Structure formats: structure tokens, C-alpha cells
Amino acid sequence: MRSKPTLLLSAIVAALGGLLFGFDTAVISGTTQWLEEFFQLSKATLGFTVASAILGTIAGSVIVGRPADFIGRRNVLFILALLYLLSALGSAMAQNWIMFLIYRFLGGIGVGGSSVVAPMYIAEITPARLRGRMVAIVQVNVVSGMLIAYLSNYLIASMELGAVEWRWMFGVEAIPAFLFFILLFFIPLSPRWLVAEGRDDRAAQVLERCGTDHGSIEDEINEIRTSLDMKTDHRRERFFSAKFMKPILLAMAIAIFNQLSGINAVLYYAPHIFRMAGAGSDSALLQSVAIGGTFVIFTALALTIIDRFGRKKLMIVGSVGYIVSLAVTAWAFYTYGTEFSRAGGTVVLISILVFVAAHSFGQGTVIWVFISEVFPNRVRARGQALGSFTHWFMAAAISWTFPVIADISGGHTFAFYALCMVGQLLWVLLVMPETKGLSLEEIQKRLGIK
Q1: CA-CA to 235 of 20 to 30 Å: which in 31, 209, 299, 375?
Q2: Does the reported pTM lie above 0.85?
Q3: pLDDT band at 282, cuts 50/70/90?
């Protein structure tokens, strides 16, 4: 069935938070050499500088859940848009390391908050038959943001602006951040949040514009009210309790495995990895653009089939792709060490592109869809926040340590990631439930949550 215009517009606008999420995540990859020189950074302090935004994402993912419950999902997105704008301008104009870290941290709060609120908002306005692909629009925008960042970095570098080059790389993010803020005025509030606030008439209007699972708006609202358990205040219900343990463990597991693949090490340090494999600086930036393009192509492919084939099948294919590509990358670093030939560098480039394709087709598309689905309506904001916090905590650990451990042995680093992905494949096969085609309320019942 076709989606309604309001639903599609709302999903695209909310997913712009994902585009900024992707841009902010990837843009620093083209600036690391300049930052080392300008701020006189060691390998350890460079790792901390890169991780500073991720520390912000941890904070953002933790603090955003409660405001999303009290003031609504859309209103929180307004705040996050302003944080993106402030971070872009502040990072571009920072005159000392501490101020740069502060502005990157604020941008990280925007990223962490967006990773919670954008998928949750889209899941709550979308009928079950379309939910996978609509929530996956967030991931399409994330990878599109990465591609834009890589391409922007390459184009700015080609202008030979010298010492201010890195400032322009950060500053261009202000344009999409301002656009995101303006477009948020044109999308509705979440119908499930409106029901939780006792505003059933407004919720009915939104459901009429976005579509329902049952065809009957009244039946939809009654099912939402039942799932919320309106006899209690859902905002004060205890989250870490036995009845919510299953979705908590599922969300944490998929988030941990996501980062144990090493994906954020590749995103933040792509040019550095290619230089390790013998590429020149300009070539390394251009190869990063190829990574961004691969992200977009395979995420778009996954988006078109996720509601047909389901979440588990995409995860299985992605896990196998992870294992093969990481193992080959590890082999290349063990074989060539620091003396890469052109053939060795080509092997690393192809392996990394296969790795990115596997991530885009599997984990990258599935994670935010899955986390947005497995929690009941009454604790979804806090559940989404927990999943996002786990993801970004692990991302901080991976990105902070990568420059140091990769300097010791690239082979050991990628072999470790490959081993972790064997663990992910076993988890998908033995533990992960399928959620395709089920309403949010039906998933709650399938997980045994009353």
C-alpha cells in the first residue's frame, strides 16, 4: 500500500536529524591532520578529540528520553536542530582546543538525541506495513549525510584553502541544520504521545493524515490506550524491571554488536586507514567518498526490502559480509604490515567497501528500526534512549582507542572485529526475534509484556 503524503513528509523531515547525525559523524575524518597540527595533539589527545562528539552523543542519548515524554518528540527535535547549528558554527570558529571540544560535545548531544527521537517519532506515526522502510529513512539520511561530509571534505580540500580548510569543513553543516529547524514546523505531533497526554482528538487527526494499522481510528486509539495502561502514569513507571528485561537485553545486544564491528573506527578514521595502507592524502579523501557512496547504495537497497524479507535475514547477510571483509582486511595488514604495495592497498580498499556494504545492508539499517519497535509505548522513549546510549558508549570506546591500537597492529585490530561479528551471527540466529509486519502493540504482546 502507498504511504500518505503527510506520513512521507513527516518521515523525511524527522529523518533530516539523521542526515545531520551522519554529517556530524563523518566530517571530522577529513580534519584530523589539520587538528593535530593546529592544536598540537598527540595520538591519545587526537583520539579524545574525535571521541569528544561521541561523549556528547552519550549524554544526548541519556538526557533526551524524559523530555521526549514530557514535551513531545517533535518539540525535542527543535532543540536538537539548534544544537546542530550552534555546534557547526562554534566548531568552525573555535580558537582553542577546549572551546573546540565544547562545541563538538554540543553537536554530539544533537547526534545522540536524534538517534533516539527521530526513529521513535517515525515508528509512532507509521502503520506496521510501512514501518521498517519509513524508520530506515533515518539510516538512509545518516549515510547520505556521511557521503555529503566526505564529498564536502574532498571538495574543500581541493580548493587549497590552507590553515582554514578544516574550519570550512565544519562550518557548512550550519546550512542543513537551519533547514531542519524550519521544516519541523510542518510536521504533526506523535499520535501515541498525544494519546498518552489524553489528547485523543488531536491523535485521531494525526492518524487520519498518516494512516492506521486497523483501518479504524477508534480501534487504533483504544489499542494504544490499552498498551499505555492509562491507570498508571507511564512517565513514572519503573523502567529497569523484570517485565521490560527482554527488550532491554535485545536493544543493548544489537547496539553493542553494532560497534564491535569497528564501523565507527572506519567512519572516523577512513582516510587514516587508507594512508596506513599506502594511499596518499588526496587519494585517501577520495576513497572516503567511495565509502559514502557505498553506504547510500546498500542502505537504499535494504530500505526497499526490509518490510518484505524482515529484520533477521538482513542481519544474517550483513553478519556474513562483516566476517569475510574484516578477515580479509586483517590478512592484508598481517601480510603487508607498514610496507603496502599497490595490490595490498587495493585489497584493503575493496575489503573496506565490502565491509561498509555489509553494514549498510544489515546492522546499519536494522538497528534503529529494531530498537524503535521492541519497547512498549509507555517506556519507548527510555528504551530508545538506553539503546542509543549503549551504541554511543561503545562508539566512544572504539573511536578513542583505535588510533593507539591500530598503530600497534592493524591486523590484530581487524581480526578482533571479525571475531566479534561471529558472535553477532550466533546471536541473530539463536536469539533475535522477527518484528516485521507487526504493530507496535502486537510486538509488545509477542514479547510477553503486559
Answers
A1: 209
A2: no
A3: low
Q: Residue ranges of the domains in the chain?
A: 5-446
The answer to which of 102-116, 271-285, 361-375 has the lowest mean pLDDT is 271-285
Rounded mean pLDDT of 226-236? 61
Amino acid found at 242: A
To 10 degrees, the CA torsion angle through 391, 415, 364, 302?
-160
Cβ contact 356:295 at 8 Å: yes
Burial class (CB in 10 A: 0-12, 13-18, 19+), 145: buried
84: number of Cβ within 10 Å: 30
Helices (H), 261-409: 263-276, 281-309, 311-336, 342-361, 363-374, 380-408
* Start-to-end C-alpha separation, the chain: 31
Q: What is the pLDDT of residues 56-115, one digit of tens each?
A: 888 998 898 889 888 999 999 999 999 999 999 999 999 999 999 999 999 999 988 988
User: Which CATH number applies to 5-446: 1.50.10.20, 1.10.3260.10, 1.20.1250.20, 3.30.565.10?
Assistant: 1.20.1250.20
At 1 the pLDDT is 43
Q: Which ranges in 212-310 belong to alpha helices (H)?
A: 217-228, 245-260, 263-276, 281-309
Nearest to 153 by CA among 135, 127, 171, 178: 171
Helices 245-260 and 263-276 pack at an angle, to 10 degrees, of 0
Alpha-carbon distance of 98 to 87, in angstroms, equals 13
On the CB side of 273, how many CA atoms lie within 13 Å of its CA?
A: 33
User: What pLDDT digit, counting tens, does each position of 16-51 carry?
Assistant: 888 887 888 778 877 878 888 889 888 778 878 877
